Amino acid sequence: MKALLIYFLLFAFWAENVYRISFSDIRGFSLTNMSMYFVLVAWLLEAGRRHKLFLSNNLHTPIVLTTFMAFTSILIKLVIGEIPTSLLKESLDLINWSIPLLVFLAVFNTLNKESTCYLSLAGLLVLLAATTITPLVAALGNIELPGVRSAGWRIGGFGNVNVYAVYLVMFMPLLFSLGLLGQRSWIRGAAWVLFAVSMISLLRTGSRSGVISFVFAMFTYLIIVRKMYPTRLIIVGIVSLSIIASVAVVALPSQVKGVFAERLNPQGAEDVYEYTSGRTQIWKNGLLLFLDSPIYGHGQNTFLPLNTKRFQLGFSAHNAYLTYMVEQGLIGLSIFVFLLSRIFSHLLRQLRSSPNRFALLVYAGYLAGFCGYAVAMLAGNVATPRYIFWIYTAVVYKLTYITTESNSSVASALDAGQ
């Protein structure tokens, strides 16, 4: 039953972001929000059963601090008054911003079985398959879908093509992990096929930052598992990755290959500004804005309007860390980095201590994807995949706590028997 709730969350995300299906035009009653309400109810029922609302995890403190800082930055924005706004608008924006974090808490506190966690992960991979296959089929059939973004030869499964590339990078190391060491042959086969399709989709986005973050994620994966797996298996993985990447490049239309090769070649641009599509100027502007208020920032959602107002350049930061620096200052950036470091350190400890072989595949895949996601935030926005990121994180996090408790129970039983 709980896995079905996660599936509904994922279906709502897919329906709204690909087909623009809406349950209601009333704010707060979208299909995504309705699916979230069901999970919240399940959370409350589960909390009533165990007489405890929050189960312990190491992200509660940074999540509270992050939310408090977001609320504080709204007050700062209102007090400074650089950008005209209202308390009502900012309050609604804060609620919308906090939804992914609330979903994390709801999913983490609702799931209670290892099998349900694996079923939820399967649902996330089915969503990945749907969002990779749909735009490719649409491109081949010349079909227009409301949520599928295309800019010439560049195609994204939802939203901005660079944003979609970040989403792909999150899950591709997990597919690679399952392809190498999945427990059953059909799991390995399905993982390799989806990995190859995802690779083609990543190249079709034409996202340079996506390709860089993918390379970093896969390099991280190989570093993580170098002592866990035999050298022979690592070599097999590298060879498989090379073959799939080569096949994906060959499978691209000739026009796409030529244009993408030009985008990757820095010599094809006159200068760094052109090669980065103007990002260097945006980042320079962001640093100047940051220096104006380095401690507590200018307030929530001020980067774009301030960049437009002061520099006549109507673009967002294309860098999540710089966004925090400008909008929440060093305090907000420190809290954000603290949150990310907690996730990284927790999964790294699980990799070093968990005896559960299949869970280790998941942890290695998640951690590598997380590192790719963190690198991608240096050159892109993560608004849309942020929702999926927190569902993915909640499922993997709950799996770590369930398997740890299970292993502790087995160890206690063995000690008692002796």
Written overview of the protein:
The protein is mostly helical and 418 residues long. Helices cover 76% and strands 1% of the residues. The chain contains 16 helices and two strands. The protein has a two-stranded antiparallel sheet with strand order 1-2. A hairpin with a 2-residue loop joins strand 1 and strand 2. Helix 5 crosses helix 7 and helix 15 (357-376) packs antiparallel against helix 16 (383-417). The longest helix is centred in the C-terminal third of the chain and has 35 residues, at 383-417. The radius of gyration is 22 Å and the shape is globular. The model is unreliable at 409-418 (pLDDT under 50).
Give the topology, please:
Layout: H1 2-18, H2 31-50, H3 60-80, H4 87-110, H5 114-140, E1 149-151, E2 154-156, H6 161-181, H7 185-205, H8 208-225, H9 231-251, H10 254-264, H11 272-275, H12 279-292, H13 303-311, H14 320-353, H15 357-376, H16 383-417
Antiparallel strand pairs: 1-2
Helix pairs in contact: 1-2, 1-5, 2-4, 3-4, 3-14, 4-16, 5-7, 5-16, 6-7, 6-8, 6-15, 6-16, 7-9, 8-15, 12-13, 12-14, 14-15, 15-16
